[in-house]
Amino acid sequence: MARIQLDQIEKRFGDTPVLKGVSLDIQDGEFVTLVGPSGCGKSTLLRILSGLEAADSGRVVIDDRDVTGVRPADRNLAMVFQSYALYPHLTVAENMMTPLRMRDLTPVQRMPVVGPLIARGPHRDMRKQASDVAETLKITALMDRKPGQLSGGQRQRVALGRAMVRKPLAFLMDEPLSNLDAALRVHMRAELSELHRRLKATFVYVTHDQAEALTMSDRMAVMMHGDILQVGAPDEIYLDPNTLEVARFIGSPAINTLPAEAQGDGLLHVLGVSKPAPMTTTRQPVTVGVRPEHLVLKEAGRFSGTVRHRENLGADVFLHLEMAGLQQPLVLRATPQDAARIALGDNAAFDFDPADMLVFDAQGGRLRATTPAREVA
Amino acid sequence: MQSRAHLWFIGPAMALMFIVLLIPILIAVGLSLTDYSLGNQGAEFVGLENYERIFTRSTYEKMFVATFRYVFVVVPLTVGLGLGAALLIHSLGRFGDLYKTIYFLPVMAALIAMAIVWEFAFHPTIGIINSTLEKGCGTFLEAWPWYAKGCERTFPLWLNDRDYAIWTVSFIGVWQGFGFNMVLYLAGLTSIPPQLYDAAEMDGATRGWDRFRLVTWPLLGPTTVFVVTISFIRSFQVFDMVEAFYPQGGGPSKSVFVMMFAIYEKGIQQNLMGIGAAITVVFLAFVMVLTVIQRWLVERRTHYV
């Protein structure tokens, strides 16, 4: 259980700045996800937090103790690696006992053959702890196998077990699910959330997969170009992104962006249609973002596009609409019933509620309304 | 009718293996049971007489003693030093390549040429080794009885004293061989996933020795099996150095009469093909045993699929 503070962390590799003064405050027992495209510095930030990498400047504080200069082993954190990093020559049980052996036994007690004889008590305790954790993770049957004999999902559990066995202050996870197949990944997402609820420990989770971030975290921090762009609950980030980049990165399929012109009088013109936009006060070119689920098929819709592609997911159908004046097709979410009426190549009329518009200025910053607007029908 | 295509696929490889490997070995086994000499019209079948000689005569006892002394000094030292050097170089950032080249030089150099240099170095009066040792006379080093004795009379005739010769030759063997093992170990070290060291650090392996025991040594297992086998075979095969130092037959009191040299002396110099072939077969048996042990170890212990 720990509160973790990262304070103005900076890191450069050679001349390339990787982290540009990142600060993040993680509460005790929180599940925080660092999410961003590859190369955004999220893994480096986690490694700095763990101590495996040293920051050029800035501080890492765990439970009000400055651990910036403390070596990883003494920070009492546990880490789950993307490649699992299990010791291939040790059995599952031995792998899980390694952190206990290294911390709780003296070098003499750790010696093969002799160690277990002269320190029976500690060795028995270790085995007990490992088998308790194995029971929690349902891997008791695998305890005598070597990692090479396990499937990806089983290795994942063993790696988790090795992290859990010594009850660390916090769990750090570096893309732990990215080597699993799609179905197992979805299943493990649920299990990790469940594990977090049960352990009530602090989890710091790094991923490039926005779906993992949205499904599991209490809060997520969206990172890009070595900076945290926005920190907040998943809903907040999804519905109320601060910048165009965040809006584009979070959500799948990605948000639709339309070029528009703000008139300066609380109206904007988007593809020849005028929409109320009280957040705009000056004449300027803007970008309007609308999520696929906010585009609605409507006979009287003021926009129309040609259906170029239908993506059928069973419960939903995503229609890709080509429109004059847009390079990227728009993506619209429809129910299967509605979508059945529209064939490839048809023209589809649609519209959206201006309240669902996210408006960004030319620099990609969000323009926010002071009072919510509803279109007068 | 069954297709005979498979014969065309395995045929060439089988033919080559028989012609260049198996048939010569069978010929050697056959020759070892005779008293054949090159140029003779025929040969007498002598049964196991050649083998009996190898395992009873004192010359061959000296051969085994010299061979095993050499092997059991050179193998552990070249493996140990090779691993040590590899670990040190692996931990270096900048001058790693320089050290790698320096340690690998003796492997590349022709041992015959290097033998001349060593012969000078070990020369009893003008050699650099003994003249350096003499400089230490009269200092605290004389507290060591061996050293005092050397000052009083002379320092050893390294290469020509039967108590020292095999150890001196072994030393040169180590000097020459450990660079090779170092390169093999360096290759092994680069293939260890760095995340394992991260995991070891997170798990609390703070001391270098802990990390070595937990990660480095187990993951070098396959490399070690290979390095040890190769070193054994290479040390059993030592020949050129002995030939360069003692062309007249196996060093002082035959104390450096190693197997390869014995094969050469009997089979080529004295044209006793039968006994030469018999020593070859014994040599082959040693190498076979080593290879079988290696296969067994590799399959049993060190591969973590």
From TrEMBL, chain A:
Residues 4-250 form the ABC transporter domain. Belongs to the ABC transporter superfamily. CDD domains: ABC_MalK_N. GO terms for cellular component: ATP-binding cassette (ABC) transporter complex, substrate-binding subunit-containing. GO terms for biological process: carbohydrate transport. One of its GO terms (molecular function) is ATP hydrolysis activity. It comes from the Bacteria. This is Glycerol-3-phosphate ABC transporter ATP-binding protein. Keywords: ATP-binding, Nucleotide-binding, Transport. The keyword Transport applies. InterPro entries: AAA+_ATPase, ABC_transporter-like_ATP-bd, ABC_transporter-like_CS, ABC_transpr_MalK-like, ABC_transpr_MalK/UgpC-like, Mo/tungstate-bd_C_term_dom, NA-bd_OB-fold, P-loop_NTPase. PROSITE patterns: ABC_TRANSPORTER_1, ABC_TRANSPORTER_2. It holds the Pfam family ABC_tran.
Automatic annotation (TrEMBL), chain B:
This is ABC transporter permease. Residues 64-294 form the ABC transmembrane type-1 domain. Pfam families: BPD_transp_1. PANTHER family: ABC TRANSPORTER PERMEASE PROTEIN (PTHR30193), INNER MEMBRANE ABC TRANSPORTER PERMEASE PROTEIN YCJO (PTHR30193:SF37). It is a multi-pass membrane protein. Coiled coil: none annotated. It comes from Actibacterium mucosum KCTC 23349. Keywords: Cell membrane, Membrane, Transmembrane, Transmembrane helix, Transport. PROSITE patterns: ABC_TM1. One of its GO terms (biological process) is transmembrane transport. Belongs to the binding-protein-dependent transport system permease family. One of its GO terms (cellular component) is plasma membrane. It is found in: Cell membrane. It comes from the Bacteria. The chain crosses the membrane at residues 7-31, 68-89, 101-121, 164-187, 214-233, 276-297.
